[in-house]
Amino acid sequence: MRLDVVTIFPEYLEPLNVSLVGKARARGQLDVRIHHLREWTHDRHHTVDDTPYGGGPGMVMKPDPWGEALDEVIGSGEGEPVIVVPTPSGRPFTQQLAQELSERPWLVFTPARYEGIDRRVIEEYAERHDVREISIGDYVLAGGEAPVLVMVEAVARLLPGVLGNADSHRDDSFASGAMASLLEGPVYTKPPLWRDRGIPEVLLSGHHGRVERWRRDRALERTSAHRPDLIRELGAGTLDRHDRAT
Ligand code: 6GU
User: Where does the tRNA methyltransferase TRMD/TRM10-type domain lie (predicted)?
Assistant: First the structure.
């Protein structure tokens, strides 16, 4: 998969050299290219922002540098990228959206600072390309760079061969499957006794069916406590007889 990021803070994207994403790059599974937006400015001060028409606080990112940058980046590859525009006014980023993006060969991210990018840029590229305005949650950040890190990590770990064990995202909170839309419950490892605290007996029983039942009950408890909205959304027929008694 190819990923391009156009930003005025290239150093903000340095975590993409580390850990899961860094290793995927080193193995050639990800081709990540970071671009400095100011390289597509032509004035002495490399201006990327200006005051908003209609007044109001803050600054707006000028359309010209974005247009030149996107034309060059998009023109440098084969095929159709998805253009991902991080913005608090976008659609929510979900595991399903991460999965969808992970199935595309090329993503171009346009993280903005200030009050956002001149609207005409989004309209212009949406006429010819697949443009997605995406928010990572209901809070406001100073710019889209941290959301790009979040989205790239969520997408990269879904690529074939990037995680060591293909099963390891099967039971993830929000993955599909038997534990669909439940939060994951608690996990334990050695030693069996730590500061007088043991581990639940059932996990030592070797009884796979009872372990699965226990995991599902803990997932239901946690989901009820932290995300009652997810319990309400579970479709009729999702809860079995034992679930309803829990
Ligand atoms: Cl994508 N950008 C900014 N600036 N703030 C956010 C966001 C994105 N998602 C949630 N808050």
Answer: 1-232
